[in-house]
Amino acid sequence: MSWLPTKDIDKTCESIAKLSAKDAESYRTFVAMSQSVLPLFVPGLYKPAPPLGQLMAMLDSNDEGRLMLDYMQRSSMDILNHWFESDRLKIHLSRLVSENLQLPDELGTGMGMLLMPGIMHTYGVSQPYGGSGKLTEALIKCVEHHGGEIRLNAEVKKILTSGGKAVGVEMSDGEKIMAKDAVIGSMHPHKLRQFVDGVEEPVLARAEKTTLAPFSLFVCHYDLKQKVEFKAKDPAVKQAIMLTLAATDNMREMQEDYDSLKQGKISKRRLLAGNDESHSDPSRVPPGKGMWHSTGFAPFSLAEGGSSRWDEFCEEFGELQQAGFQNFLTNLTPDNIVARKFCSPMDMVRDSPNSFVGGDVHGLAPYFYQSAGHRPTPDLGQFKVPGIESLYLVGPFMHPGGGVFGAGRATAMVMFEDLGMNFDSTVGGQVDADLPATKTRPAAPKDNIMRLYDDQSDEIMAVNSIDTQGDEIVIKGKTFGTMPLVARLGPADLRKALKLALSPKKLASIVSMLFKR
Question: pLDDT of 316-351, one tens digit each?
């Protein structure tokens, strides 16, 4: 049977009710809870995260934060078993968060389970027309438009340093490219020692102790004479962007398959996902043709032979995957296959040896102790390397983790600040930081709450009270609608605030605002 949750919460709950009426109610409540914490979580994806200790203290200050703190330390299965009774629903949700390369029963990974349903029903799932490669092509055009150069097959051998500062890179062919302002590197923490001299030993040791995901991916690509036909009769299956191909409807059996991954064994059942995106995007293939693209879970280090065995085992495992697909497809058969390619976990390491270490395409495991400002370590969590000026870090092993999150934005913000540049005005396309925001500011609600907005007119703080306490001004409110915040302003900072705000021109502007809505 097919079961297709969608962005529409009502339709999804209607379909869940066919499995369990109780779970349909629970799921609606769970999604509402998930969506309630998104205003706190989502902005943090695009900016540097606070140190983990500070984040925990902030979360521990109210009920919403304590909920997040609680779920952060639990396993997905713990949360699923508390909320739901249907194995099919548990399998769907566990597979959803397992795309982050985490096992359902691992403690310290429950945050994904709390957040993913809310994200799915708020933002949905999308893909560039023409495939994900179109995003890369667009970024290349942007870089080149602004005077940048993209080099292919250009391997960096070493980061060049002088006087404790990164000054350029040395290529594998001996060429040296000197930096004007800084060097930005996608260097896995396990590889930092290889590329950078002069880093203190404790920093390197902590970087090399970071933990990789417990399993990896096996990718299959097929070019087909005709589009894929599914055994499931629901026509909506062909329009889906993501399809999980569950080989069992028993959660205990699926957990056995996950346990096999952890032990380096080949599971009894295949853990598969895939689709023929040409059904919804014909530009992906020549006219009338089809495709099949699949990612499946596989151990990186095989129990028999280790990771090096993948080169001889790749085709055999690919055949097992193909047999798994054929349980769901009617025409993934030799007569319909033009070409196929299997990519093992070792192939991924070769594709990106300094990022996908150990076959971990997300850089590092998404464990609690490797999250926020401690990802990958407390030393490196602010996108810089201690003791090496002008060297900045990017990659899936940095906050917020793997996936298409626009994560390099946080690195850019840190770099802009160090260079004395205005990030908001530059990225927002505004020459003058005093120009108004491009997004219309919402009308002020008729209440006694003062609201502060960011440059896109999204609320970042609601101020409930401004009082005096001794020689301080005390401002109380909530950030992002959930987290309580108390801000204190002393005499020296109050004088600075007045100096910043009260030029004759600004004073006139402030007074005129009082008469506007």
Answer: 999 999 999 999 999 999 999 999 999 999 999 999
- 101 vs 370: CA distance, rounded Å: 14
Exposed e or buried b for every residue in 334-370, given b needs 16+ CB within 10 A?
A: eebeeebebbbbbbbbeeeebbbbbbbbbbbbbbbeb
Residue 160 placed within a domain:
yes
Could you tell me where the DSSP H helices lie in 44-132? Answer: 52-59, 63-72, 76-83, 87-98, 110-123
For 332, the domain range is 214-351
Tokens of 169: 């890179």
Do residues 228 and 313 both lie within one domain? yes
Q: How far apart are CA 281 and CA 162, in angstroms?
A: 51
What are residue 323's phi and psi, to 5 degrees? Answer: -60, -35
347 and 397 assigned to the same domain = no
State the pTM of this model: 0.83
Query: Which tokens hold the place of 331?
Result: 């025409």
Mean pLDDT over all residues of the chain?
Answer: 89
* Local confidence band at 431 (pLDDT 50, 70, 90 cut-offs): very low
Q: Edge-to-edge strand order for the sheet containing 271-275?
A: 244-246, 271-275, 290-298, 216-224, 337-343
- Which strand (E) or helix (H) includes residue 488? strand 483-489
What's the pLDDT tens digit per position in 202-236? 999 999 999 999 999 999 999 999 999 999 988 88
